[in-house]
Design goal:
This protein has 132 residues and is mainly α. It has six helices and no strands. The termini are far apart.
C-alpha cells in the first residue's frame, strides 16, 4: 500500500514540537484511542512517560525542553493540554498533503534560494506570458 508515509520540509525551531503534537494526537482525533499514550505505535509513551525504546532518538529540540528527564517529560505532556486548531492545524495538513514546507515566511526565501525550487504552492490555472 503506497502513500502511507509522508515527508516535508519543516522549520524546526518553530514547528517541530507542534508537528509532534499533531502526529501523536492523530489516533485520538481518529477515535482509535482516548489518549495518545494508549496508542502502541506512538512515541508519546517515550517522550511523555519515559518508556525506553531503541527505535527513538530524542531530537535536540525535545531534549532542550528541560535538562531534567522528569521535568522534560512533564513539559512535553503540557504541550498536549489543548488541541491544535485553526491556522496551525490547516498549515500542518496542507504541508503534509501537498508536500510543501511548514515554516514562517522568511524561511521560504532562504530555502528557495538554496534549492532553486519553489516551496510554496503556486496559483492554479493558465498564466498569460508577458510580451517582451
Amino acid at each position: 500500500m503506497g502513500g502511507r508515509f509522508k515527508s516535508y520540509l519543516l522549520q524546526e525551531e518553530t514547528y517541530l514540537m507542534q508537528v509532534y503534537r499533531y502526529i501523536e494526537m492523530n489516533p485520538v482525533r481518529a477515535l482509535m484511542v482516548d489518549e495518545p499514550a494508549d496508542y502502541f505505535w506512538s512515541s508519546y509513551q517515550c517522550n511523555a512517560l519515559g518508556k525506553k525504546s531503541d527505535l527513538l532518538t530524542p531530537h535536540s529540540i525535545y531534549t532542550r525542553l528541560d535538562i531534567n528527564e522528569q521535568a522534560r517529560q512533564s513539559a512535553y505532556r503540557g504541550l498536549f493540554s489543548h488541541q491544535i486548531e485553526g491556522k496551525l492545524l490547516e498549515d500542518i495538513r496542507q504541508a503534509t498533503n501537498k508536500g510543501l514546507a511548514l515554516r514562517n515566511d522568511s524561511f521560504f526565501a532562504d530555502i528557495e534560494s538554496l534549492t532553486g525550487r519553489r516551496v510554496i504552492e503556486g496559483k492554479r490555472g493558465w498564466r498569460k506570458k508577458k510580451n517582451g
